[in-house]
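Students often ask why we bother encoding 3D structure as a string. The short answer is that it lets us treat folding as translation between two languages. Here is a chain of 329 residues written in the first language.
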Amino acid sequence: MLLAPSLTSLGVLDAAATAARLPWSDLADEIAALLQDHTVAVPPRAVLPLAQGGSLFVMPATDQSVAMTKLITFTPGNAGTGRPSIQGDVVVFDIATGERRLVLDGPTVTARRTAAVSLLAARHLAQTPQGPLLIVGAGVQGLAHAEAFIHGLGVREVWIASRSSASAEALAAQVRALGAQVRVVADADAAVPHCPLIATCTTASAVVLSAPPRPDAFVAAVGAFTPAMAELAPALCQHAARHGRIVVDTSDALHEAGDLLQAGLDVAALPTLADVVSGLSAAAPTHHSGPVLFKSCGWAGWDLAAARLALRHASPTTSATRSSTTTPA
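And here it is in the second language, the structure alphabet:
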């Protein structure tokens, strides 16, 4: 009797198999390479509002050999229900043949490439990359950033702040399993003076961080991705602009970086991560040069980098588990 081919053999990867193809350091390296690849084309993403406050995201991108589209739904109403806020897939095609090569788990790609972008930025911009690291928000992006910074920067101490103590303790257990020391704190602002690395990874429905960062701080803000959303207080952003520097992930932040727009900053004048990676920006840290705020809004190019890497990596494991994240773009 002939057996039906498995989904994995057909190139449809679940969450675990997708993650296995996207190691942290390799993914950060692939993102850096993509930023210097002039064949990459990324049109604006399409965002279709859905009933009951949800959104459908369609995010295509291509280079000279690979084309992909991320198709995901973002459903804020799923928070706290046990259902993922983000669901969907990344479909990867070979340009020469038109063949569909892979279908990757969309939430897993989103989580890993977002944290890998923060890792790449920290490699270039963090003055004290060993940490401690403060994570604000105990969702999937909080765990992804902890993993990325532990594996990619050698961080060994992580502080966690969340509106939900149960979520904070659950994330703390996961981070301890990675070999890091963990401290759960009730007040994120009170932890800021102790942590030169900060990642805000919330749903960005309200400001979660107000305290001005220390002079050697690197802050990655990844939760807000529309003009109406903000994790950081305007005064914090203005402090970073006056006393340090601000870098955005792409020029799309001009229309999407709610934290910076609500602070009244000229987002169009800010350097991008591509400027930093290519050495075209003066944003690289110098001794006592002030805090660095890295504002990440998301870009289909990051998903293309993940697709390129996934095509090259063999998948050692599979699982039926799907994952979720709180940063859809």
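Translate back mentally: The chain has two domains: 15-109+301-312, 112-299. Keep this in mind for the problem set.
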